Amino acid sequence: MPMDYTWPKEFDELAREASEWVAEATSDLFNTDDGWLVGYSDEFTLRLAEKGWIGMTWPVDKGGDGRPEVERFVVTEQLLLGRAPMAGSFFPDRQIGPVLLAYGTDEQQERFLPAMRQGKSKWCIGMSEPDAGSNVAGISTRAVKDGTNWIVNGQKIWTSGAQTADWCYLICRTDLDAAPHKGMSEFIVDMKSTGIEIKPIKDASGDSHFNEVFFNDVLVPGENLVGELNNSFGQTMRQLEHERGGIDRLASNQRLYLDTKESTDASNPLIRQEMAQIETGYQIGRDMVLRNVLRQTPFPQYSAVTKTWCTEFEQRVANFIGLVTGANAMLSNRVSRNLTYSPAYTIMGGTTQILRNIIGERILGLPREPRPQS
Ligand SMILES: Cc1cc2nc3c(=O)[nH]c(=O)nc-3n(C[C@H](O)[C@H](O)[C@H](O)COP(=O)(O)OP(=O)(O)OC[C@H]3O[C@@H](n4cnc5c(N)ncnc54)[C@H](O)[C@@H]3O)c2cc1C
User: Fold this and answer.
1) pLDDT at position 149
2) 309 and 227 housed in the same domain
3) Whose CA is closest to atom 9 on ligand 1?
4) Which of 199, 231, 263 is the last residue of a domain?
5) Which of 1, 138, 165, 184 is least buried, going by the fewest C-beta atoms within 10 A?
6) What integer pLDDT is reported at residue 371 of this predicted model?
């Protein structure tokens, strides 16, 4: 039986509404491909909040609209296709809000969720360090108890949006004697705190959305600890599930493909063949994401499969666009930016090599390479 890709009528209507809304809401703003990470506009964040599309799935008694996850999927896909500059709201909407709903205290939820919903609080994620990117358990930024507070010292790197964030969701070592996967805790850190220094890093496309962030005796109130003390590794892994399995990992440059397609000479059968691969590929990736959204994944860690497949697809899209644009890519900032940016797809949020290890070891049950004896 052929696959039926027809949406129920109400989702079609929601998609149309979102598509028309984003065109209108960004008509006077800068918008960009990869807008969920590099497109920043306070004005757009407020417009999105006013529309009710930040935290739309959060429970009603927690200030959300309790809408189904699939509606967030429908809206987010259209925001991505509309190149909406939504970096100011995407981290709270995609993962920090859900993490606080899962692990935060009632007080933390009451304190932080409403401002996220209103588009008035921006967040960054302090996970990676210079010597601990793939190996999150290797972090050395530490938080030491001082009365009821914590004092944080260390360095994070590649911290997207740190320069505009109000808050950092920070992962720290809190027990220096524990095994690497133990002894870590998560904190909410006020980015205006004394002792925080932010240094932007320029990426290959010339943009500097990510940063080095230095913490020098930064005081964090005790009530900003999220979840379990010395046992946050599982929380962090759960957060990465939110980070890896969504439509943002598939559709970052899809509008660029659709726009490029209009001027592509499809009389060449090899070009046509590649376009067919991309268009079926988008449907396959979309189905994988939808399984996450609909909680129909066949095994835990499914987001490792989704992100591996979808981000390699995004790179294929970038390569195709480069191929058909040819030397003119150098004249089109949009194309050259995407080409130089696209290696990031398979690095950020966990590299493809690490995700393939997860697929091999945890999903397929393949033997692990013996670790060297020390
Ligand atoms: C655009 C962008 C935005 C980002 N935003 C954020 C952010 O907001 N917050 C944040 O905390 N981090 C962020 N990151 C960092 C990102 O999570 C890390 O870059 C990523 O996890 C890889 O870590 P690393 O760069 O230290 O590379 P390494 O861990 O040093 O890896 C280097 C290479 O070795 C390979 N490798 C490492 N270990 C293994 C292994 N065991 N088996 C096989 N291969 C291995 C890797 O796959 C990679 O190819 C961002 C990165 C990018 C590119």
Assistant:
1) 98
2) no
3) 159
4) 231
5) 1
6) 65
Which of 123, 134, 242 has most ligand 1 atoms within 8 Å of CB, for mutation? 134
Q: How many angstroms does the Cα of residue 164 sit away from the middle of ligand 1?
A: 22
How many other β-carbons are positioned within 10 Å of the β-carbon of residue 269? 8
> What does the angle CA 149 – CA 151 – CA 155 come to, to the nearest 5 degrees?
145
Span from the CA of 191 to the centroid of ligand 1 (angstroms)? 23
The binding-site residues of ligand 1, defined as CB within 6 angstroms of any ligand atom, are 124-128, 133-134, 158-160, 210, 344, 347-351, 353-354, 357
What was the pLDDT predicted at 372?
60
Q: Whose CA is nearest to atom 31 of ligand 1?
A: 134
Tally of domains within the chain: 3
**pLDDT tens digits for 275-332?**
999 999 999 999 999 999 999 988 888 999 999 999 999 999 999 999 999 998 888 8
Q: Which residues of the chain have pLDDT under 50?
A: none
Residues 189 and 134 in one domain: yes
CA of 81 to the centre of ligand 1 (A): 26
| CATH classification of the domain holding 215 | 2.40.110.10
Residues 21 and 115 in one domain: yes
In angstroms, what is the span from residue 136 Cα to ligand 1's centroid? Answer: 9
User: What is residue 68's three-state secondary structure?
Assistant: coil
Q: Quick one: 174 and 73 in the same domain?
A: no
Question: CA 178: distance to chain centroid?
Answer: 30
Q: How far is CA 306 from the centre of its chain?
A: 13
Residue 369 included in any domain = no
Determine the distance separating the centroid of ligand 1 and the alpha carbon of 243, expressed in angstroms: 14
Show which residues are catalytic: 243
Residue 281 domain boundaries = 245-363
HSE-up (13 A, CA, CB side) for residue 129: 19
Mutate to test the pocket of ligand 1, among 351, 357, 361, 369 (most ligand atoms within 8 A of CB): 351
d(C-alpha 75, C-alpha 16), whole Å: 9
Residue 64 and residue 76 share a domain = yes
* Distances in whole angstroms, Cα of residue 67 to Cα of each of 80, 201, 352: 19, 37, 32
Pocket test residue of 90, 125, 127, 128 for ligand 1, highest count of atoms within 8 A of CB: 128
